[in-house]
From TrEMBL:
InterPro entries: AA/rel_permease1, AminoAcid_Transporter. This is Cystine/glutamate transporter-like. The keyword Oxidoreductase does not apply. It is a multi-pass membrane protein. It comes from Oncorhynchus tshawytscha (Chinook salmon).
Length: 488
């Protein structure tokens, strides 16, 4: 005991004697502007250019679809405010996983980790990358349909590019995100201005009888919200990298509030612009809504829109690959995932193994998946765990009223968001039992895995030795090591 204590003390002294740039750990490099760019750049991806079709299809009318877009923005802002409280209450990275672990316990946290990397993250990344591939390839084959194999190949190349950036440097990934965010905001402005200008001139015929709801059925309404909420998805990614945010108690709430208000206003205006220039029928038959809009409203710049949309998708993909691996990193650090994934590259200071694990999963799903089949499949578990996290926040408030909370969201907002999320999740099981049921089953499949490998390890000794040997060899090959200082 005494010898071990002396050894640990000597190791601690060695770390202290190292220069700051030599110590292996995730550094606080994300200020307010990168934080805002990170949220907006992740939220504004393929969704606003593809999801309008899903929202309109399931809401049944132009007017109701605009209401759905606005309510999705308000609901997402409510959720983002809840996560601002969670992010300043619990200073660890990891987002959903960390909050479930701290408020509801290890099993829900493990199931969130299991679902994230088994299908949620690969499905979301596949959806965005397939949209990227479609918008890159479409202009070269218009008006004919592009080959599906080529779309998937370009999608995989986009994923490879993003993975390479995030493996290489945190700073490079952050700067790339800022650049792509400014480009995608320019794309939104390019759509909003001509649409609102035409509306101001009296072009309102597409809004006549906008609330005819003859085709609306209540079982489809949750799917309309799923499509809208998917387009707003990403407001929680800053919480994945809390340990890398400069002054998180101040910058996380500010970045979240500014970003979500900006995105909500832009999304509603973009949809108004779409409906000003296109009828509901034209929007429903279009596979690339932004391109159809550009052909109507931006004759001289029509060829630029697919490029801007592709860049927008790339930015969302980059944000996802920047944030999501941090959840795996923290899960491995807590003992819920193999320890290899809690390691950092010794020179790049990036969570290399966690990023690389996602890559083959996304590539497989891109090769097999279809773009419109992925939203509902991923959304059920994602929103179930978000609702559980905010419910856990309320429980934590009740159990530990004196716990420091630098930012505290009003109780009404937290309760409203939690109840609505559970309602949407529950109703979606009725609306789309095949996809949501499959998502639920895959999530629950993590329960036996947890009890066999985490709660009480029942793996044979021989398997453990083989696993430890492979982990050691991978650690040497990837040049990774565990953090030498605590960052939370």
């Amino acid at each position: 005991m005494g010898i071990d204590g002396i050894q640990l003390k000597e190791e601690g002294d060695e770390v202290k004697e190292k220069k700051e740039d030599e110590v292996i750990h995730l550094r606080r490099t994300i200020g307010l502007l990168p934080a805002i760019s990170f949220i907006i750049g992740t939220v504004v991806g393929s969704g606003i250019f593809i999801a309008p079709k899903g929202v309109l299809m399931n809401s049944g009318s132009v007017g109701l679809s605009l209401v759905v877009w606005a309510l999705c923005g308000v609901l997402s802002t409510f959720g983002a405010l809840c996560y601002a409280e969670l992010g300043t209450t619990f200073t660890k990275s990891g987002g959903h996983y960390t909050y479930l672990l701290e408020t509801l316990g290890p099993l829900p946290a493990f199931l969130r980790l299991w679902a994230e990397f088994l299908f949620i993250r690969p499905a979301v990344a596949s959806y965005v990358s397939l949209a990227f591939g479609r918008y890159v390839v479409d202009p070269f084959f218009s008006p004919c349909a592009p080959p599906t194999a080529l779309i998937k190949l370009v999608s995989i190349l986009g994923v490879t590019f993003v993975v390479a950036i995030n493996c290489w440097s945190v700073t490079l990934a952050s700067r790339t995100q800022i650049t792509l965010t400014f480009i995608k905001m320019f794309a939104l402005v390019l759509i909003i201005v001509p649409g609102i200008t035409a509306l101001a001139r009296g072009q309102t015929e597409n809004f006549q009888n906008g609330f005819e709801i003859d085709t609306l059925t209540l079982d489809k309404l949750p799917l309309a919200f799923y499509s809208g909420l998917y387009a707003y998805g990403g407001w929680f990614y800053l919480n994945f990298v809390t340990e890398e945010v400069i002054n998180p108690n101040r910058n996380i709430p500010r970045a979240i509030i500014f970003s979500m208000v900006t995105v909500t206003v832009c999304y509603v205006l973009v949809n108004v612009a779409y409906y000003t220039m296109m009828t509901a029928e034209e929007l429903l038959v279009s596979d690339a809504v932004a391109v159809t809009f550009a052909n109507r409203a931006l004759h001289g710049l029509a060829s630029v829109i697919p490029v801007l949309v592709a860049v927008s998708c790339l930015g969302a993909l980059n944000g996802g690959f920047f944030g999501a691996p941090r959840m795996l990193f923290v899960g491995a650090r807590e003992g819920h995932w193999p320890v290899l994934f809690s390691m950092i590259h010794i020179r790049r200071n990036t969570p290399l193994p966690a990023i690389l694990l996602l890559y083959p999963l996304v590539v497989v799903m891109v090769a097999r998946g279809e773009i419109f089949q992925l939203i509902n499949f991923a959304s059920f578990s994602r929103w179930l765990f978000i609702a559980m996290a905010t419910m856990g926040m309320l429980i934590h408030r009740y159990r530990f009223p004196l716990h420091p909370r630098p930012f505290k969201v009003p109780l009404t907002i937290a309760v409203t968001f939690t109840v609505v999320c559970f309602f949407i999740v529950g109703l979606s099981l009725y609306s789309d039992p095949w996809n949501t049921g499959g998502s639920c089953a895959l999530t629950l499949s993590g329960i036996p895995v947890y009890y066999l490998t985490v709660h009480h390890s029942h793996l044979p000794t021989r398997w453990r030795k083989i696993f430890n040997y492979c982990s050691k060899q991978l650690q040497i090959l990837l040049e990774v090591a565990q953090q030498e200082v605590q960052t939370y």
